[in-house]
Design brief:
By secondary structure, this protein is of the alpha/beta class. The protein folds into 2 domains: about 100 residues, Leucine Dehydrogenase, chain A, domain 1 (Rossmann fold, 3-Layer(aba) Sandwich); about 140 residues, NAD(P)-binding Rossmann-like Domain (Rossmann fold). Helix content is about 35%, strand content about 20%. The protein has 11 helices and 12 strands. A 6-stranded mixed beta sheet has the order 2-1-3-5-6-4, sandwiched between helices. A 6-stranded parallel beta sheet has the order 9-8-7-10-11-12, sandwiched between helices. Helix 5 crosses helix 6 and helix 10 packs across helix 11. The longest helix is centred in the C-terminal third of the chain and has 16 residues. The two termini are about 30 Å apart.
């Protein structure tokens, strides 16, 4: 029986155990998956102790330890290197540890599920923090015609764009959105504004003219940003619950080789919110 956990602080609210047990049920596997609370001071010793168990095959890591664990693993995936963070640790057969981030794949899988096309699309990604860094490589791999990262601090957006220099990827300040004339096919909010009940300061015209609006946050009701987009007439609005399940599915696949069906898990979680 494989043993897994998710490290975080706070962590009691995590849906990861429920999600992964549903995946295991699909796969016909028996696993142990729980939550582990840690502090910045004891995270690494606690992580090390967890993997002393020969049944421990992997773990997830959430805030505030994603950057810390990236320095602990032996090898980083390309996505994790770019993000500077890890949310999934895989214990390899030789006893070494691979650190990966599955957020980008989780987002891409959810966009596919929602029939939102990324290839040849014009995409606006709001925010240049860790959430944005975690999805950039996966988004660009689908070859959008343009991906703009817009952030309150222009320099931060430009620095992020410089990590993957290519013609279809630029970073700008939020104020520069006033100069954008053509509408976006997809706007993705990666900022934490929704969690605080706030709206990023972007022109209404940019939101109202977009075809699809996706907020990485989610809750028991539409986020403040989704509510605002709806008010401005955006018909296709989506929250990040599917991304949460999608990134977990990618972790489960990396550990077990089984790719879960996310749809019934999303439905079950949605009904319990």
């Amino acid at each position: 029986m494989g043993r897994y956990t998710v490290f975080g602080n706070p962590i009691a609210h995590s849906k990861s155990p429920s999600i992964h047990h549903l995946f295991a049920e699909q796969a016909g596997l028996t696993i142990e998956y729980d939550c582990t609370f840690a502090t910045k001071e004891n995270f690494i010793p606690t992580l090390t102790d967890f993997f002393l168990d020969e049944n421990a095959k992997g773990c997830n890591v959430t805030s505030p330890f994603k950057e810390q664990v990236a320095k602990w693993v032996n090898v980083l995936s390309a996505n994790a290197k770019l993000a500077g963070a890890v949310n999934t640790v895989i214990k390899k057969e030789d006893g070494t540890f691979l650190g990966d981030t599955t957020d980008g794949q989780g987002l891409v899988q959810d966009l596919h599920r929602l029939n939102i096309q990324v290839k040849d699309s014009r995409i606006l990604l709001l925010g240049a923090g860790g959430a944005a860094r975690g999805v950039l490589q996966s988004m660009l791999a689908l070859d959008p015609s343009l991906l703009i990262v817009a952030n309150r601090t222009e320099e931060k957006a430009q620095n992020l764009a410089s990590l993957l220099p290519q013609d279809n990827f630029i970073g700008i300040g939020l104020k520069q959105l006033n100069t954008i004339q053509r509408p976006f096919d997809l706007i993705i909010n990666s900022t934490s504004a929704s969690l605080a009940g706030e709206l990023p300061c972007i022109p209404d015209s940019v939101i109202s003219s977009c075809a699809n609006f996706y907020d990485m946050s989610y809750g028991d009701k539409p986020t403040v940003f989704i509510q605002y987009a709806k008010k401005l007439g955006v018909f296709n609005t989506f929250d990040g619950l599917g991304m949460l399940v999608g990134q977990a599915a990618e972790s489960f696949y990396l550990w077990t080789g089984y790719r879960p069906d996310v749809a019934p898990v999303i439905r079950k979680l949605r009904s319990s919110l």
